[in-house]
Amino acid sequence: MKTSLAFPIRQATTSRRHQLDFEQLVFGKEPTDHLFISEFAEGNWQNPRIEPFHDIRMSPFSLSLHYGQTVFEGMKAFRMNDGRVAIFRPDKHHERFNRSLERMCMPEVPYELFMQALHELVDLEQAWVPELPDAALYIRPFMFATEARLGVKVSDEYIFMIVATPVAQYYAKPLRLKVELEFVRAADGGTGSTKCGGNYGAAFYPAQKARAEGFDQVLWTDSHKHEFIEESGTMNVMFIIDDVLVTPPLTSTILDGVTRDSILTLARQRGIATEERPMSRHELQAALRAGKRVEVFGAGTAAVVAPVEWIQIGADGYSCYTGADAVMFSFKKELDAIRTGERPDLFGWNYLV
Ligand code: COI
């Protein structure tokens, strides 16, 4: 759905598309030919436009560089079997973007501006949407404070941009996770449910330590007693135990993931029992110790469904079920089938460009 909002599009004179081998993609490395940009000043979004991809100049005093007013989104456009391109659930990403912006005292992006910018950019970059399985065009809308001031204040000026990059599968193999019992990702009332840059920067140190210990990522726990499981790395986390799909509820510490919501919707439609409730590490440990078939997976835009093969809880390690008949893989298949048009899009998730 294009809106009536019109803005200038300055096209690149040559495309870099053919310099890139879609079989060798590194996540987030190669930008497409164009970007969308608009500045916020004097209470309004100004001069929305699409331009050839370029670097940006900003003052070293820019507030985002010092006090972290920066928010992003991540969504994907897919190539359908009939060659058309569809963006997956952009309206839900727009809603979440605005919720994050509100929490960070940043101005909302109106729906029309967001959708038109997305539509025009992806339309222009259709050649950058890979046809390969598990590949997509990753789209990154983001906003940051640009007012030049070292005083601690809410910025009055911002840049909103959308950039895009072709991507392949995020994780090449099942994950080994360490239940994090020292550091926390988010505390009640904090910014954990938003996609602000600080959440990701603050996670680097614990994740790096986990990697040095031989794990791929951490499984975050709550900030009170490290008892309840929250998220995994940059993804929501889901469990299938005793045929029930369990995932932590949406609190102020959990991101309202679009893949999380899509999987819950598909599970309910299939008649699989779902529970959005706190899951303690003791409950998880008891199920693993009892030798139950436990499926654990991360759900996120970048990773889609990321199977977990090993969970380390303190000194004890456990393997999780990742057999080919695991239910988690059926969600991935179903999502793929909806995105390629192989299955009907019953929930209206595909936004056709
Ligand atoms: C996403 O899944 O889109 C993420 O935000 C994860 C990461 C690429 C930051």
Approximate strand percentage: 25-35%
Proper CATH architecture of the largest domain: Alpha-Beta Barrel
Q: State the CATH topology of the largest domain.
A: D-amino Acid Aminotransferase, Chain A, domain 2
Percent in helix: 10-25%
Overall number of strands:
17
Biggest β-sheet description: 8 strands, antiparallel
Q: What is the count of distinct domains? A: 2
Q: What is the top-level CATH class of the largest domain?
A: Alpha Beta
Order of helices and strands: EEHEEEHHEEEHHEEEEHEHEEEHE
Concise account of the structure shown:
It contains eight helices and 17 strands. With about 350 residues, it is of the alpha+beta class.
List keywords for this structure.
8 helices; 24% helix; alpha+beta; 8-stranded antiparallel beta sheet; binds 2-OXO-4-methylpentanoic acid; D-amino Acid Aminotransferase, Chain A, domain 2; 353 residues; D-amino Acid Aminotransferase, Chain A, domain 1; 2 domains; 6-stranded mixed barrel
